[in-house]
Amino acid sequence: MEDPRFTAVRFAPGYDMAAVDDFVDRVRAALEGRAPMTAQEALDARFPTTRLRSGYSVDEVDLWIDEILARLEQG
């Protein structure tokens, strides 16, 4: 799996970078067969939001999760 690249935003709502990075690691492990993860777990993922410090673009992270859902549903 290629590491996703998300735009960092400031002074606008964003997702906490550390929480998203941890989730990306969990997804990578699942896709490599090292840890279980269901599509529902990816769908249920929630991240703390940021406003006055850098965070990842909400739209970009949500789009990436949609792509991951399709891969997890395929098996």
From TrEMBL:
Q: What is this protein called?
A: DivIVA domain-containing protein
What domain of life?
Bacteria
Q: Which organism is it from?
A: Brachybacterium hainanense
Cross-referenced Gene3D superfamilies, in alphabetical order?
A: 6.10.250.660
